[in-house]
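Changelog note: in this version the structure field was regenerated for every chain. One regenerated record is shown below for reference.
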Amino acid sequence: MLNELLNDRKDSILQKWFHQIAETYPSDGAKFFEKKKDQFNNPVGHTISQEIKVIYRQLLDDMDKETLAESLEKIIRIRNVQEFTSSQAVSFVFLLKKAIREELSAEVSDRNLLGELLIFEASIDQLALLAFDIYSGCRESLYEIRFNELKRKSIHFLRQYENQREPEN
């Protein structure tokens, strides 16, 4: 019964979720995300908007871990390079719970669906764990890229230094 409600109210829940994610950005960014959702004028907002739809659909349907991971990674890569803390970077997953509760609180209470809601929220918690694993991997990759760049620059400077110090014959 909860799945029916989640399907029926999908658009409203996704809109609330997107708005809550946009609010995690500075106020100018949040306003920009809300106004422009096309991929050329606002690639970040567009990506988030598209990928939360995929995530939501997966949560309601078959929970394909690979599909979920791909969508989560697209969002997390964005948040990773924007220097969010680890908790801030994955917090968007938990905002889905808030959006659902805001949208369905009356129906959940009236129809005695709290048990079903808690089970569904447990799947969101599992999604958050997956998101944190993805974030850790992205962060590790970013540090590796930075380290390799630093190493490359250091080698370049050492070679320049050595070339300057070579005695002339």
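Spot check on this record: The chain has a mean pLDDT of 89. The CA atoms of residues 59 and 123 lie 7 Å apart.
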